[in-house]
Design a protein that fits this description.
Length: 285
């Protein structure tokens, strides 16, 4: 039976460090500040944004919330970003995705100043991740690396398989694993005979978005299984991508949903906001 990786406990430990750093910055320079923009009323996004606000408040980070109507124009959104880019109280800017269809997501990401891009979505920051020269770590993959580190699970020399090639999770996850000297395979929905590849994984990361997608026959005995999915079973219960019970009986470590990767993602966002505030304080000297 696998050890269950407790994302809430790891989060609490990292948030303790974040809170101490925020207090030091508030004394020495200014209180770190995070601006969060949400456009429209997508219920899942509203929950995420509320959780981000709560996490800031609990850890000594000022949060500035901008809830804009669904019919906000591209020009109005870009004007808000420009104002936040120039506001010294704002260290980090996050625009919750997905945006309503009439808005150009790429143009919005490109408009955020790279030194305030705490999501690490701007091309300047994705480029830095590519070369291992991190300004900000991408939140979800960084949270996964932090959990592995705190559970003393080695990555160097291991065979890692990532299912999903999104810009938010799959691609940056693969890069962090490559930079940590793993041998990495990235699969997607068109990968032939997926199970033959996932069965080779010492560390299997699933970012698919389908309940019960990863079954025991896809997992090697003793593998570490990281579940990034946030889905709902037909009964409405929250679940990940992994068929938890049967995979847990085969794996050495496994992350649950909820309580695994999810809490870590917001924690790394807080950590990135601290990094941005430190850099801004340094630049002011
Ligand atoms: N939507 C889903 N995940 C994320 C995230 O990490 N950042 C932003 N900005 N939007 C998201």
């Amino acid at each position: 039976m696998a050890t269950i990786i407790d994302g809430k406990a790891v989060s609490a430990a990292v948030r303790g460090e974040v809170k101490a750093a925020a207090a030091r910055l508030a004394q020495a320079a200014h209180t770190p500040g995070l601006a969060v923009i949400i456009v429209g009323e997508d219920p899942a996004s509203q929950v995420y944004v509320r959780n981000k606000h709560k996490a800031c408040a609990e850890n000594g980070i000022r949060s500035f919330q901008y809830a804009l109507p669904a019919d906000t124009t591209q020009a109005a959104l870009l004007a808000l970003i420009e104002t936040l880019n120039n506001d010294p109280a704002v260290d980090g800017i996050l625009c919750q995705l997905p945006l309503p269809k009439h808005l150009d997501e790429k143009a919005v990401i490109d408009a955020i100043r790279p030194d305030k891009d705490v999501d690490a979505f701007h091309p300047v920051n994705t480029g830095k991740i590519m070369t291992g020269d991190y300004a900000f770590l991408p939140c979800t993959p960084a949270g996964i690396m932090e959990m592995l580190k705190r559970y003393e699970i080695p990555v160097a020399g291991k065979r890692c398989v990532v299912i999903g090639r999104s810009n938010i999770v799959g691609k940056p996850m693969a890069l962090l694993m490559i930079n940590a000297s793993a041998t990495v395979t990235v699969c997607n929905s068109r990968t032939p005979d997926l199970a033959s590849i996932t069965r080779q994984a010492d560390i299997l990361v699933s970012a698919v978005g389908k309940a019960d997608f990863v079954t025991a026959d896809m997992v090697k005995d003793g593998a570490v299984v990281i579940d990034v999915g946030i889905n709902r079973h037909t009964d409405g219960k929250l679940c990940g991508d992994v068929k938890f019970d049967e995979v847990a009986s085969k794996a050495s470590y496994i992350t649950p949903v909820p309580g695994g990767v999810g809490p870590m993602t917001i924690t790394m966002l807080l950590q990135n906001t601290i990094t941005a505030a430190k850099n801004h304080a340094e630049a002011e000297k």
